[in-house]
Amino acid sequence: MLMKSLESGRCAINRISLYGLLLVVSILMAVNSGYACEKAQGESVNSVYFPPKFDSIDPENDYVFQLLELVLEKSQDKFGKCQARLLDYKLPLKRVELYLEKNAAIQVAAFTVSVKRDERFLPVPVPISKGLMGYRLLMIKQGDAEHFANIQTLNDLSAYTAGQGIGWADADILKRNGLPVITAGSIKTLIDMLAHSRFDYFPRGALQIITELETYREKPVQIEQSLALSYPSMTAFYVNANNTALAERLEYGLNQAVSDGSFDRFFYQHPSSIDALKNINLAQRKILKICNPILPTWVPIEKHEYWLEPWPQRCLDQAELKRKRSKELR
């Protein structure tokens, strides 16, 4: 009986110790997730970790990582020194989202803004690339350029059909702006369909389209030279849902950089921005601006200093109406 009592006592102590350890870990995770910047184990400086792009050749020189470095520098006066560090291994997008959600290994990432991501993470409400990702060039079939030469309005463009991927946000945005869309399962399939005149044009990002034309150079497709579509699309820093301190720091640093002009200097001098703007060639194209009805209500499209160009009043009115309805439903 004595031995059984001692064994039972040891088990109870072990259970208590285990529960205590789990409690301590949980508390530490909760505390750590609220830090704007902290020392990682074995390091001597405060830092935040950022995941390198999965396909990046030189991640230290990537646009978003270098912008993060600038933002941390610009917030130093209020929050103290902090170093941006790259995770020493690459993660696919789904794993990046999981790590950020679990507050594991990384403290900040950059995503295209969406309502679903807002439910999982905390967004920093300042665009980090001036809405550049919302500009779309048109991939068309070789020989079809004359069909687009006289297009001046969205109504003109609505006579033609766009191709998009199944489930892509772009497909929904185009449809809601009255533009016909056909969908398919992959970029390869879409380019094949375009080459066979199954639809008329394939809107793509300014950097994406160059890569894809090189990849599928044997296909009879090209960039249309006179038009571009644009809609409010925001890439933002996201942090763990509980890390309000880091979100506050990044928002402060971004606004400081916007105010003192260092953000624009960085944006217009970075090689990736230069390449994208060269491809878009705003001065030589007719830009057809459409609204984005699926954009989260907090996105500040009315703050012109955050964007490449001001958005049409109809888009501002649509966003304001959506905000009012959202408040009424709360």
UniProtKB/TrEMBL annotation:
This is Diguanylate cyclase. It comes from the Bacteria. Keywords: Plasmid.
